Amino acid sequence: DKHDENQIKKIMGVQRQMIVNFSKFNILNFWPGVTKIVLRNRWRELFSLRRCQEDVLIPLIRARKKAKEERVNKSKEDKKDYEDEYVLCYVDTILALELPEEKRKLNEEEMVSLCSEFLNGGTDTTSTALQWIMANLVKYPQIQEKLFMEIKGVVQDGEENIKEEELQKMPYLKAIILEGLRRHPPGHFVLPHAVTEDAVLGKYVVPKDGTINFMVAEMGWNPKVWEDPMAFKPERFLSSGGETFDITGSREIKMMPFGAGRRICPAYGLAILHLEYFVANLIWRFEWKAVDGDDVDLSEKEEFTVVMKNPLQAQICPRLK
Ligand code: HEM
Asked: What are the tens digits of pLDDT across the range 285-298?
């Protein structure tokens, strides 16, 4: 559905509040019985924000449900199938979902949680990764120049937008995206996982229902695996045999910015494509330079993802005549 600017701003507003307060609210999870007493105000704040989120998202979910019912009725009346003219969206898929064990549909509150997860999981991660990558291209102009020359070799002069097929002919671009995700993974941990029964891992027993997580950033910075790990060197991903790096970790795990195994990010392919598309077009259209006398500061700050403490500032000059 096409939402108006005002509605989009409202969605952004509530989602942004959830993101910036993520760590503050996450603490409430550790010992809810105790935090409900000692951090009462924080719980109140969380519930109030959650109500705002429901006020914004539930009407949109209901509107989609109504549209579907109207379509079904119309197609019965007209004896015509309108499904082909219809673009399926995420909300349609969760409206149709039925929990197999409980044999019931999702309620509106559960749908709000899923929409919120999907919106944050699909936007904040990619935009954070994009900012880190662009910051490195501003900090290291020789890498930016090498990428521009690669793009110039593939794209016709004067062509405004780089096409998806053209991205596949740019190995250095791919290497830059992978190096960005290794050096600055948006999430320094994956989502919390739990074991369903006692499990032995190395010398340790992980008890049933125990929460476990993985040090994603540390893995990508391991000096036993990566040479000069804190340096930004896309060349490390340019293999001589032309074999692409396996980001899913199905052969070996050298880094896991999208997690690994059954719960790997379902959108890792889309995310990499988005990053390739944005970076290639931003560099093709503009030259990016540091603001006079300013060295790009790569200090980190933890929000929902690990973002630039001092957001990237750059001068951009159009390249296309
Ligand atoms: C650079 C961009 C992205 C990064 C670094 C990233 C990273 C991750 C990570 C680390 C996880 C957790 C994996 C685990 O728990 O083992 C995850 C899960 C998830 N991601 Fe992404 N993600 C990105 C983009 C996206 C996009 C574009 C979408 C949706 C359009 C998305 C949707 C999801 C969803 C729904 C989950 C939860 C899957 C589950 O619980 O099984 N992500 N992502």
From this structure: 999 999 977 789 99
Helix (H) or strand (E) holding 211: strand 211-212
pLDDT at residue 206 in the model: 93
Ligand 1 centroid to 306 CA: how many Å?
Answer: 14
Q: Note the ipTM here.
A: 0.99
DSSP class of residue 227 equals: S
pTM, 2 dp: 0.90
The percent of residues above 70 in pLDDT, for the chain, comes to 97
**Cβ within 8 Å of residue 167, ≥6 positions away:** 173, 273, 276, 277, 280
Report the distance separating Cα 81 and Cα 17, nearest Å.
42
**Own/partner pairs, 292-299, CB within 8 angstroms, 24+ separation:** 295/139, 296/135, 296/136, 296/138, 296/139, 298/135, 298/136, 298/139, 298/184
At a CB cut-off of 8 Å and minimum separation 6, what does 257 contact? 181, 182, 185, 186, 187, 216, 220, 247
Average pLDDT over residues 232-236: 97
Mean pLDDT rounded to a whole number for the chain: 93
User: Which of 119, 265, 270, when mutated, tests ligand 1's pocket best, judged by the most ligand atoms within 8 Å of its CB?
Assistant: 265
Confirm if 75 and 82 have CB atoms less than 8 A apart. Answer: yes
3-class DSSP state for residue 20? helix
**Contact predicate 138/312, CB 8 Å:** yes
d(CA 289, ligand 1 centre) in Å: 31
| 89 annotated as a binding-site residue | no
Which atom of ligand 1 lies at the shortest distance from residue 189's CA?
A: 10
